[in-house]
Amino acid sequence: MRLPVSGARAGWTALVVVTLGAVAGCGTSGTSGTGGTGPAAPGTKAAVGSTTSGATPATTWAGTTTTSTGTGTTAASAPTTTATGGSATTVSTDPTCTFGPARLRLTYPAGWHTNGAPEPCALFDPDPFTVPEQSEAPTVAVMVAKEESAFDPAAERLRSSPSVRIDAERPTTLGGRPAICFTMISNGMALLETGTRTYLCLVDFGDSAVAFQNIRLPGLPDKGYDAEVRRMAERATPLP
Fold first, then answer.
1. Which H/E stretch holds residue 212?
2. Is 28 in a helix, a strand, or coil?
3. Which of 18, 38, 6, 74 is nearest to 215 (CA)?
4. Greatest Cα pair distance in the chain
5. Contacts from 222-225 at CB under 8 Å and sequence distance 24+?
């Protein structure tokens, strides 16, 4: 499945905001859509929209070993096991990365992969993924986007969308911050295929709202990523 690319605005921020805008039934303001550029290369995951290409910047993780696994993708090491007094002890090495648009430090599961370019730390998946130049971004387990409005207007935009049915809305707190977790089903009026399920937790970071979400296409199995959406939102930390 493909989402039309939104405008000439560069970066992964535009990509994931387009995804959220598609769920809400509106695009990024001041931009116009363009089509995709054909199917992804063999071995890549299904695509959901992006336009930007460029050199992969250096990415630094906290206390992990990283390896390159394809264009714009970095893998974090799995937890290490060491012998202590004749018994094995597993040491957690959950990695972190910096999501620049909202100045957040995000923690994600050891062994998962994240994008390194053009806007690092926006997409996360247990499997390696690549983003061919001038193509679309892969559908992944967790996507992160900084909303272009504050928390309350962003939540209202989701509620009033004609393109989705709200199956559930749960006010909560994540990381001590106000949040709302939505379960939404697309009716096909916007960019998402009819029956596509989106689980999205919108978190209030004061000056901005940030969406943590998983999109599951019709017919695909539930892999339990809703819990990881909440966990990543819970562990997100604003930078000084």
1. strand 209-216
2. coil
3. 18
4. 63
5. 223/141, 225/141, 225/142, 225/199
Q: Which residue has the tokens 């957040």?
A: 104
Number of independent structural domains in the chain: 1
CA distance 50 to 104: 22
Segments forming the whole domain that contains residue 14: 5-55+62-78+90-238
The CATH number assigned to the domain holding 147 equals 2.60.120.1690
The predicted-structure confidence for 181-215, as pLDDT tens digits, reads as follows 999 999 998 888 999 999 999 999 998 999 999 99
Report which residue type is found at 28.
T
Could you give the angle at which helices 12-24 and 151-159 cross, rounded to 10 degrees?
Answer: 50
Considering the entire predicted model, what is its pTM?
A: 0.68
Confidence of residue 28 (pLDDT cuts 50, 70, 90): very low
